[in-house]
Structure formats: C-alpha cells, structure tokens
Amino acid sequence: MNRLKDKVAIITGGSSGIGLAAANKFIAEGASVISADIAAPENKNIDFVKTDVTNPQSLQDMVNTVVDQYGKIDILVANAGVAEKKSAVADLDLDNWNKVIAIDLTGVVLTNKYVVSQMVKQKSGSVINMSSILGVVGGVKSQAYSAAKAGVANYTRSQAITYAAQGIRFNSVAPGYVNTPLLKTLPQKVRASMIEKMPIGRLAEPEEIANVIAFVASDEASFVTGALINADGGYTAQ
Ligand SMILES: NC(=O)c1ccc[n+]([C@@H]2O[C@H](COP(=O)([O-])OP(=O)(O)OC[C@H]3O[C@@H](n4cnc5c(N)ncnc54)[C@H](O)[C@@H]3O)[C@@H](O)[C@H]2O)c1
C-alpha cells in the first residue's frame, strides 16, 4: 500500500523498538522518514537527525534541518521514551522521577511545540503522541511513567480540540506491553509479570503497534482526532 506517499514524517525515538518499526512501516507506505533520536538507526533508508527531546535548542535545530531539506513536515510521531526505576512512592528516587518526566512527558510537549509551529504555517499535520497502557490503568510501583503517560494522553486531547479547526490532528496511542529493547532494561521478574497481564498470552510485537500508528497518521484516518466537533459548534474531548 501507498497510504503515506510523499509524506514527510519525523519519528522521535525512531532508531529502536516501536519507533523503528513505525519508521520501516512508513517507508513501506511511501513516506520519507527522519528519526530524531539520540542514537542513529541501523537502517540507512531512515534519515537521521541527532536530537535530544529534552533540549529545546536540539529540537528547534532538528525542525530547521528537516524543513530545509524536505520543505514540510506532514507527520510527527512523538515516541521517544524511557522506562522508570519502579518503587513505591515512599522510596521515590527523585532523580529518576525527574528524568522520566523530562523525556516521557515534557519531551513530548517540547517536540510538539517546535513541530506544530511548522504545521500551523502549513495549515495541516498529523501528530501522534506515545502514551501507554500504564497511562490508562496505572501499575504497581509505577510513579513517573504512569504519570507521564496519563499526562501525554490528556495533554493530547487538549491539543486536539485546540488545533482541530486549523487542520492539525492530534492522537495518542496507548500500547500494552511490547517486545522492544525498552522492556529488556527491566528485571526478568517484571517482564514475566507483563506477559501474564497480556490477554493474548504474549507481548505485542512492535510491527503490530506500527500498523496502528501508520493508519492513524494516514489521510484514510482523517476523521480520527482526539476531539469530536459537535453540530452546535461545541466539542467533546475523547
Ligand atoms: N515497550 C513497551 O512495552 C511499551 C508499551 C507502551 C508504550 N511504550 C512507549 O513506546 C515508546 C517507544 O518505546 P520502545 O519500547 O520502542 O523503546 P526503545 O528503548 O526500543 O526505543 C526508545 C527510543 O527512544 C530514544 N530516546 C531515549 N531518550 C531520548 C531522548 N532524550 N531524545 C531522543 N530520543 C531518545 C532511544 O535512543 C530509543 O531509540 C516509549 O515512549 C515507550 O514508553 C512502550
């Protein structure tokens, strides 16, 4: 299929796991893909602009580079993220909290800020922000990660209704547990409990999440937004 023909897509964290699977899928669907990541992808068909999503200057430079080279940005997948050090809040490691919030929540918002400024000029764009099942239901001994991911989901609803009339769509995706390098950073006991929680009896594969992201990014899904515009001109956030 060619659902993303001639689209220019930035994927933060596009060099590994779900972001890499999305990059490969987007290319297969006809898009040009830029991985904005601290690490380079192995696939040389994916363009790479070294970017740290916690650093505003790095993000602004990345957007400038992409616009200079491609002339536009059609799609942003704000996907870069890290796992947390799990603990009950009484044992909270504040440095770890600050790091996870900086990358998983503030990093998404900052990436949106610089990319959406360009999309406003174009009067079009599709933004997909990465949430998680832990942002929907919470998890034992999760603190920064579940807070960040819930924050991403609700922040995204607010942007959807803010930008709907300007032709920019915002959605977030909230995968269950996915077989990526991020999970390998967690203790084996935690990984085993994740598989037990998956109704399908296994971890999801990154390609399965990438298929959803590609659909939501495409014009086929142009009706999908975090906001429902009501007939009376008001709106309902979804
Ligand atoms: N794996 C899962 O089970 C799962 C489930 C739900 C949501 N998610 C979310 O999906 C996203 C991708 O996770 P993954 O499992 O593919 O992980 P991953 O570790 O395979 O990939 C994460 C990528 O983000 C990059 N990254 C980290 N910090 C960065 C920074 N400061 N600036 C730019 N890039 C940075 C890494 O270099 C890496 O390439 C994350 O937001 C994660 O929270 C993962």
UniProtKB/TrEMBL annotation:
Q: Kindly give the Pfam families that the UniProt entry links to this protein.
A: adh_short_C2
* InterPro entries in alphabetical order: NAD(P)-bd_dom_sf, Sc_DH/Rdtase_CS, SDR_fam
Q: Which UniProt keywords apply?
A: Oxidoreductase
Q: Which PANTHER family match?
A: DEHYDROGENASES, SHORT CHAIN, ESTRADIOL 17-BETA-DEHYDROGENASE 8-RELATED
Annotated family: Belongs to the short-chain dehydrogenases/reductases (SDR) family.
Q: What is this protein called?
A: NAD(P)-dependent dehydrogenase (Short-subunit alcohol dehydrogenase family)
